Amino acid sequence: MIKLIVGLGNPGAEYTATRHNAGFWFVDALAQQCGASLSSQKNFHGFAARARIAGQEVWLLEPQTFMNRSGQSVVALARFYKILPDEILVVHDELDLLPGTVRLKRGGGTGGHNGLKDIAAHLSTPEFWRLRLGIGHPRTLQPAGSQQQVADFVLKPPRREEQAEIDDAMSRSLDIVDLVIKGDMEKAMMRLHAAPGK
Question: In the UniProt entry, which residues are flagged as the active site (predicted)?
Fold first, then answer.
């Protein structure tokens, strides 16, 4: 079962609408859906809330350490509440998936994502769950010949049509949260990955 859901992003108003904050968007929406209120928790270096989802107690967390130090926040809360790596779901933006595409998986590589790298390093294992929200890649989304760098791309807001696709993927992801919390990952993946055209 999942006991901790972490949304990745960067703190500060200037980053709120950027692609790299997709994990924050998801946790904000989930908190609203289950009536939880995130508040600053200095011991955990982030905003956190205890929520009740699918009859289970779950922690929601948004690290406020900046992306490349996300693991500091995750491991602080996980150690305090004795939450194991495979009981953690990390929600993050994914360059390798188009906007509107979302995938659930456990373990694997980090795809160059600094937040995932730091969490894997702090937990001493990559074997935590990930909800990968597609944001696309500048090579596939920008006009031919565009030289936009990945670091610049993820720190910019999505275009309106991309945002609509990401919002749709988040909505579908929120619909399978109960299954994820209960640990019914196979059913959650089947439902999530079977979306038309995705």
Answer: 20
